Amino acid sequence: MAKKGWDEFEIGAMLRTFDGKIDDIAGTQQEDRAYSQSSSYTASVADWRLIKPIFNKDYCIDCQFCWVYCPDVSIISRDKKLIGVDMDHCKGCGICVEVCPTNPKSLLMFPEQADEETEIASWPKKDEEEA
Amino acid sequence: MAFDKMELRDIEVWDGNFAAAQAMRQSQIDVVAAYPITPSTPIVEGYAQFLADGYIEGEFVMVESEHAAMSGCIGAAAAGGRVATATSSQGLALMSETLYQASGMRLPIVLNLVNRALASPLNVNGDHSDMYMVRDSGWIQFDAFCPQEAYDLNLIAFRVAEDHDVRLPAIVNQDGFMTSHTAQGVHTLTDDVAYGFVGEFKPMNDMLDFEHPVTHGVQTEEDWHFEHKARQHNDLMTKVMPKIKEVFADFEKLTGRKYSPVEKYDMDDADVCVVCLGTSVETAREVAKEMRTQGIKAGVIGLRVIRPFPFFEIAEALKNVKAIAALDRSSPNGAAGMLFNEIAGSLYNTQNRALLSGYIYGLGGRDLTKAHLVSLFKELQANVDAGKVTTQLQQFIGVRGPKLAYL
Ligand code: SF4
Ligand code: SF4
Predict the structure, then answer these.
(1) Is the ipTM of this complex over 0.85?
(2) Which helix (H) or strand (E) holds B345?
(3) In chain B, which stretches have pLDDT less than 70?
(4) Which of A20, A51, B144, B204 could cysteine-pair with B174, CB 3.0–4.6 Å?
(5) How many whole angstroms separate alpha carbon A43 and alpha carbon A57?
(6) pTM for this structure?
(7) Domains of chain A in sequence order
């Protein structure tokens, strides 16, 4: 968002999330919504993150637990299929990994600088003790 | 309108709580969310009774605490309604976290604060500890010295707070028990005239406006927090006082009752003066009148508006005074009193550097007697005669045991 002076804000800790009227917000995907420039959606919080979730679709059963539990709506799911993580808004809390029920987990936390392809190639094997 | 009008006599015998409740009724508040606490309980009880009897078309939300009360008020105000509540002391302390949400979100809620001491030790009687506790919370603060003023200032508070250039919540203070439970004759306005003065509520950026969706109470972090707070402070420092004066003037035109951010009594030629708040102002006026018969040119200043602090009006009112006593009814807890500090701040860069001393009095409902004020005025006169403060700068009035004085 363009930087504004203190006298350029509307009064109140208030943002206009959308440009204009919103009709079917529940039925409209984020990428199709008319977010305004002042919407929190335009603000990246990626720099808060020290560790990041990496998603391995080989093990995923599309149970949607991670999507339900992510406090920042950062798990991207389309047609009930997990397709990735919104890395602009994921804060790296690891909740999605905690709730993932598969063995091995389909989501794991890695250092922010880890390379996705490398990590997926050496994904942990099934944990026998847990099974 | 779908509610009943109430027939009032020109003068009704009301205590401060009932006067505030009547003003809330006449303002036709949409939502009151409240939790009972002494001595402010009768305000929301009165409102609830008016609602039950069909005099109000609104909602009364019973909640489990004062924190929830103000939270409910904030939600209702953000949703686009006229909102008010009442509290005191510990209730305000519990509510205080949410006061900052209300002011930061620029929601024009009116809070009747019936001033009472803060525990511990537990005490239901009046002092100004609660008023002082939230003085930096971004709320406009008015102070009523009697039931009439509790009535009038409620009507005025809605007008100021809801102005679209202001959009800040407002507290109307009155002294616990002394004002809240003492019945006096109160000049009333008819329902139509009172509502006409307050005006219809015009929501701004309300959440229930689906044509223009907004997010209230957003997270801004270091990016924009400072700018939002700067804007709020700027509006308090520059916009609110002119608006208060404008509404005071309109109220005077309507009722003949004149209010001023700084209420001056016999200040034209005063050499010595007492600055105080609440019911003490009336006592001080009585004593000042008596001091004049003894040759002491005494005056009194009562602060009608505490936030924004009336720096310029105070400096103007005190410009010819030689000795000033700032009376604070709250434990200073390791500092000079609020009035002492802020009056010092108001005068520091002016031509008149009057002799200033601070007095702490009346904690937990301890009386401030006329005898106390007589000796105080005499002390001020002694300071004038000596050309310096002859005592320590901070003294305690009426505390048992050895005299306390500091600084
Ligand atoms: S790490 Fe936390 S914020 Fe990021 S996707 Fe997982 S649950 Fe959401
Ligand atoms: S919780 Fe695990 S298995 Fe379930 S959808 Fe998310 S990644 Fe897939």
Answers:
(1) no
(2) helix B338-347
(3) 1-2
(4) B144
(5) 28
(6) 0.90
(7) 7-43 (no CATH), 45-122 (3.30.70.20)
